[in-house]
Amino acid sequence: MNKLVAHITLQSRQCKFWGLIVALLVTAFTASAEENFSQQVSGEGRPVILIPGLMSNGTVWNSVQETLTANYEVHVLSLAGFAGTPAAKNPSLEHTMQEIGEYIKKNQLHEPVIIGHSLGGFIGFWLAVNYGERIGKVISVDGLPYLAPVFTRSSATTVAMMQGQASMLRQQYRYFNGEQLEQQAQANISIQATAKQDQQKVLAMARHSHPETVGEAIYTLLTTDLRNDLKTVTAPILLLGAVGAFTNVSQQNAAEALYQQQLEKAPNATLIMNRESRHFIMFDQPNWLARQIIHFIED
């Protein structure tokens, strides 16, 4: 997931913390029987599922969808409660993951490629852990199997260490409104995307998200550590990291080392860092992203 290390103390870290998570983060999307997401399907061929990040909808994948539709059956998801997609009665990220897994089964999608951005990348890892026999390949676009070390800057961070702050954030988000979500996004919008028009897209999606759903998702990201579970995943994994928001090489190298540590248990994982792009690689470096995706799928 989205996407980056905050150089702040634990107390002052909170503002950047929220701002970074905000992004961890037009076509009409087809209504579906699923409660926790809607989908748009286009093209023919091997199935590919595109999952957006926190407070994003499927439109962030427009350029990728356009590239892939010529040769693949592309399923673009929009998750309930994010960026104008109606909230679900059960705003559970785990329920969303399970529903996507059942969607794969129900539609008999043979070894689909899962591509997720930020939170969507985390869901991709989670699907591979729980539905490994049905997943072909996983591509995570700046999303990690455990989010918290990005903020603590330590791979030694555990769920137990984050439990209190995760619970506090979940409670706080229940009282937010759309404007407050946008304000949280604004605090660190410069690390999400480079161009002003792309930054405005991120802010608009945040403003139209459902605060309680966002809070539940943040809680899950901070209290679910998939790093050790990756040892059971045989599907090929590609993690595309973005460190273009950092101002010097030492910061970029530190982030790359942290990303690599997240994949230590995965038997078949590759890390590729983009040192020019910010968190929304599909906005900043769409051609580079498309090349990496196609090369990995076809390899």
UniProtKB/TrEMBL annotation:
Protein name: Alpha/beta hydrolase
Species annotation: Alteromonas pelagimontana
Family annotation (SUPFAM superfamilies): alpha/beta-Hydrolases (SSF53474)
InterPro entries: AB_hydrolase_1, AB_hydrolase_fold, AB_hydrolase_sf
Signal sequence bounds: 1-33
PANTHER family in alphabetical order: AB HYDROLASE SUPERFAMILY PROTEIN YCLE, MONOACYLGLYCEROL LIPASE
Keywords: Hydrolase, Signal
GO terms assigned for molecular function: hydrolase activity
